[in-house]
Amino acid sequence: MPMRRGEWRTARTHPPVGFHGARGWLSALGLTLLLLGFPEGAFCSGEHSALALASQTAPTLDVLHYKVEADMDPTEFTLSARSLVTLRVGSATRSIVLELNGSLVVSRVQNAETGEALTFLQDRFDQLNVRVDLGKVVEAGTALTLLFEYAGALRGPEGGPIPDRRLAYVGPEGGYLFYAARWLPFHDYAADRASYEITLRVPQGIVLAGYSERAVTPQPVVERSAPAPARGPRRTTAPAEASARPARIAYTFVSTQPVLAASFAFSKYLTKEVRTPGGFTIELFMKPGDEGRLEILAEPIGRMLEVYHARFGPYAFGDRLRVAEIDDDSLEYYVGPGTLFIAPRALAEERPLDLGRLAREVAFQWWGQAVALKNFDDAWISQGLAQYSALLFRELTEPRAAWEQAVREVLERALAFESATSIARAPRELYDLSPSYQAIVYDKGAFVFRMLRHVLGEEKFFTLLQTFYQTYAGKNAGIADFEEMASRIAGRSLRSFFGLWVDSTGVPEFRVEYMIVRTRDGKFKVRGTVKQTLELFEMPVELLLRAEGDRTEKITLAMKGTEASFEIPAETLPREIVVDPEFQILHLTDHIRIAVVVRRGIEHLKNREYPEAEQQFRAALELDALSSWAHYNLGLLYFEQRNFQRALDAFTDALNGDKRPSWVVVWSYIYRGNCYDALGERERAIAEYQKAMETKDDYNGAQEIARQYLNHPYVPTRARASR
Fold first, then answer.
1. Residue 381 DSSP code
2. Kind of pairing, strands 264-267 and 281-286?
3. 196: left (phi over 0), alpha (psi -120 to 50) or beta
């Protein structure tokens, strides 16, 4: 499941700072309640209850089941809910803590079995939780069912875990309730699964999208009759009072298997089902006018499901994946069990569909939804493995050149912030929407799986993934579980591998020292040593010898420690030795070091941090003035700023540079044509588009784009997304 910033926030259970001891806590209680939005006297079950809530630490909890009835009023932007939460306590306790969205105000907590009203304290502004006094000490292993009644307006990101993105919204044009928004009282994000029966009531004409094991059919809501008017003088009824409440319908979603419950979207959707050759159904929930943009996803999503099903194991949520459109005020993608939510900006017409990103989001159905995590620190086996799965999908479905470029891009992103912290520590140390977190956990994480494949070999690596999925689907797993299984399948301890690549920072930088020896039969031998600085390094390392006449020889060294000797025979005069020619190992070279600096600039450019981006691109050019990659991205920066003359100059410099990567050539011609169109030089623009087509390079759909601009000039309406 995609783990976002703040979604991992665990409720701290100590009293607020400054409340030292029972007397201080109690004396400040009234003020605290007012600050938390409670009426005076809302928490008044006596000194012993207050002491219990002040002193108890959070017990181990396991939420077992939700039975929820909720009403959404789009015209008022409100949600009101009655949630029956069945849970089991893991240790003796008198209080429990559950997380809840701060925009939802709890009005009542009750023991559903006894009917007893329970004392509670809600923090709506800091920890976003509800602390409940159970009234007595409950023994370990006891199952309880608590009723929570709450309501509130879900209009903006306030009350949720991310300050600038909505994860729950109710409005006239539709909305969504995501698990991460904490619209249900829950415990232990991304780990605590529960079964559910959830009924959502909405105005007639609204369609809901969400996971259910059973068919979901809207049922009319029978409204309660208003009480008969009291006898007395007759009065005139105001028009607003006379108007009947709009007709409503109810949707009920059921999951008997425990899942990360629950995420839904609703709108006046148009729906369409697409059956794939592999037997999956892609159910599309589209807003009117956006049908074409969403329908194009069905075919690639179907292929992704089929690839992952074959490589990892059965899809855990039946034969159906629901794909629902949300809005641009939320995250670009969000994943729930059997469901994928997509913002319109991910489908913008002015940029090609990012199949790598889409493949990653679909892979979360296996790594994050089917296999959940034990805790936050284990994010790598969800996020890193999902990113690797996307790389694997591209390997199996795209031309080799495109896949090799994707590998290079992941490697560059992985190294951009590699020294900041390790994969294992990143979840607790970094903001997980930051470029550094994404680079370390997603990209370096994916590359570590690629290296593990290189170490284990094809058969053992895919046996590992299949066995891991088969063992932990429907359960929770951690990095330690994955390491133990990897070692068992490898037939030896892999502690040094995981210690170096998961628990630590640092990457090798290989150096080769060698001499060429001519043999008596007129052939050659190259004898030498490969060196690097990581003492714990233990991996197979490939060496590629290039010789005259375009001859090549390749060997694999079992390198352990800081150096290894080699000898390579050659038929003709050797010219060059390349270490790790297929980028199987995360490592640095002079060229990669420059590309990493550029990659940092690209991350700034994505966030529209233009001065910082330009600084990084120019830093790369100081290292290598002929870096076409740096010039090209500098051109994109100027182009996005609509500084078309400077962009034109930068793309020209890219064409005059080292032309690495090779596709920079075709896209520089296209962007030069765009610049000339923007400057009113149509004839010169046409010449550039023709040059682009003459390259015959179709990276990222370049040929079709060039053809379109030959027929219709580029018009600068808004900033283009960078490629």
1. I
2. unpaired
3. beta
- Average pLDDT over the chain reads 89
Question: Closest by alpha carbon to 574, among 528, 532, 531?
Answer: 528
Complete DSSP assignment for 508-570: ---EEEEEEEE-TTS-EEEEEEEE-S-TT-EEEEEEEEEEGGGEEEEEEEEEESSEEEEEEEE
Sheet containing 174-177: give its strands across. 168-171, 174-177, 264-267, 207-210
pLDDT of residue 608: 84
Segment 84-140, tens digit of pLDDT: 999 999 999 999 999 999 999 999 999 999 999 999 999 999 999 999 999 999 999
CA distance 28 to 24: 6
CA neighbor of 679 nearest in space, from 634, 723, 639, 710: 639
Runs of H (alpha helix) within 383-542: 385-397, 400-416, 426-429, 435-437, 445-456, 458-472, 479-490, 495-501
H or E, element range at 614: helix 610-623
Q: How many Cα atoms within 13 Å fall on the side-chain side of residue 499?
A: 10
Structure tokens at 451: 């290296």
Q: What angle do CA 260, 450, 500 make, to 5 degrees?
A: 90
Alpha-carbon Rg for the chain in angstroms: 30
Preceding omega of 661 cis (within 30 degrees of 0): yes
What does the pLDDT read at residue 93?
96
* Per-residue model confidence (pLDDT) at position 353: 84
Please indicate whether residue 721 or residue 554 has the higher confidence score (pLDDT).
554
**DSSP 8-state symbol, 438:** I
- 253 three-class SS: strand
Task: Point out the least confidently predicted range of 35-39, 158-162, 440-444, 503-507.
Answer: 35-39
Quick one: which of 452, 453, 427 has its CA closest to 438?
427
Q: What separation, in Å, do the N-terminal and C-terminal C-alpha atoms of the chain show?
A: 26
| 320-325, strands of its sheet edge to edge | 270-275, 281-286, 320-325, 339-342, 333-336
- Helix residue spans in 13-82 (DSSP H): 21-27, 29-35, 47-55
Q: What is the pLDDT, as a whole number, of residue 448?
A: 99
pTM passes above 0.90: no
Bridge partners, residue 109, by sequence: 148
CA 668 to CA 629: how far, in whole Å? 10
Task: Report residue 50's pLDDT band, with 50, 70 and 90 as the boundaries.
Answer: very low
pLDDT tens-digit readout, 568-600: 999 999 999 999 999 999 999 999 999 999 999
Q: How far apart are CA 260 and CA 371, in angstroms?
A: 10
